[in-house]
């Protein structure tokens, strides 16, 4: 603080001698002086010149010092304009009146320059302190407004990203607080090109902006990889690696991710640190808990991360119910948790499935007396795949430069098959063919089915008959994981051939595996329903492609797609 | 004049503080005194009298006229007391005291500004 600050000082004093003397003393101390002979003049001069300090005689003609002080303080508002009363008043009552009128100090006569200088300095300190406080208060208010605005913008941007997914699909219901982003809660859903639905419910550590910053990169990876056709495992691995790389050590994201295939009626489930999710069977009976078996995303280094999902089979009308810890961790007045048992009771009591969220909220309210703002819930119903129309893919290029006469061969061997999913790369290559784009959903599904067959039944020699019931289903996927880890030899060969034909073009996909093949005739003779559950998806392939055939004892499949040239 | 009715320490400080304006201060004070004498004589109410005594007391004390300030203080208080007696006597004491100290201030003025002293206000 500059102790030498020069002030404008108003002196109001009716005695000419005293006024002259005081003005001289104050000027000598380096301040500017304006003088008034009575209270009314003092008030008018104050309004006009806004001096920073006022020396006021108590007894003056026209308007006395008390009234002038009141008016000056009123005009000064929140700023501190110190008023020093000039008085030789010795009665207590008069001194009290000075203070009540807004006086901050007294200066007795005879005036002593040293005393006056000290008082002006002290008052200037107070005045500047008050000014600083006001400035900081205003700055705080500005920052607060700024912060709120930033949060609004962040939320708007984030909502854009979130809504690029398929949360509005007819079989999804969700409930999320408008403040979810700043609670660290995150809800994402999108279709893969093959029509699988990927869903993620996440919960970042912390609150406020720090909890929100991780959401963007996570959403980006989720949507980007899902759109390119990557599966649950690859997407999780990438999300974990990304968060591990960018987040500070004490920040991570509890997450539950599902990959739902309505075509094959199965769901891959990965839960890292979220509360149990539930599979609510359409047939009634005990909900099946989807338990956390992993550490949250962003904790483990990529090489230690375990992306293996559990696989559960689904029946038409089953519902998957996911929730944030705001539900089970809600406390009542005695710090008791709402807990899993109470939630299960809500499930048991729920009669109208469409009111499950409301029932849960009501139970929370009854339990606690007030609702929290960090409760997220998500419910996905298992429906016929035809009722879901994945959004059409949008291409940015014109297609004029489509390559139309080429072939491509790959051989993927054991070490590659263990960890690498080549489909997204292949799909990207095929997307260059403009004429195929209207069929890309079917193409993706068929390629996916062919590759899965070659890997699981061919290379890994798994028997699809295992998948007949729920236990067998789980056993099948455990065995798949075990055999894949142990895989030492084997291959999948893939040959793509694109050629122009009159009026359009043709794609031939040939896929060959190192397995022992299968009896094509027997499998194709089974009823369609049975084929869907455990029959290698052959009917799907036949339904979606123009032509499909198996050769070499089922070891080699050949599928054809054709298109008509665009006008 | 070095009598005790004038506080020489205060006067010394005035000279120092006022510098070039010292003469102006003396002139102003002498004019003020004349004005106050008239006010004391013509006051129409105890309140007017008290206020005049209060103001006069202030300037006297600032100018180092210690005894004169003390007499003004007595008058200021006495006027507001009931029954008010001895007022006339106090006013005449103030007049006498003023006549006693006036030459000191005139002499001061003469010393620092001979022209101004020849035409007192």
From TrEMBL, chain A:
PROSITE patterns: RESPONSE_REGULATORY (PS50110). Keywords: Hydrolase, Phosphoprotein. Coiled coil: none annotated. Pfam families: Response_reg, SpoIIE. Residues 8-124 form the Response regulatory domain. The modification 4-aspartylphosphate is found at residue 57. The keyword NADP does not apply. This is Fused response regulator/phosphatase.
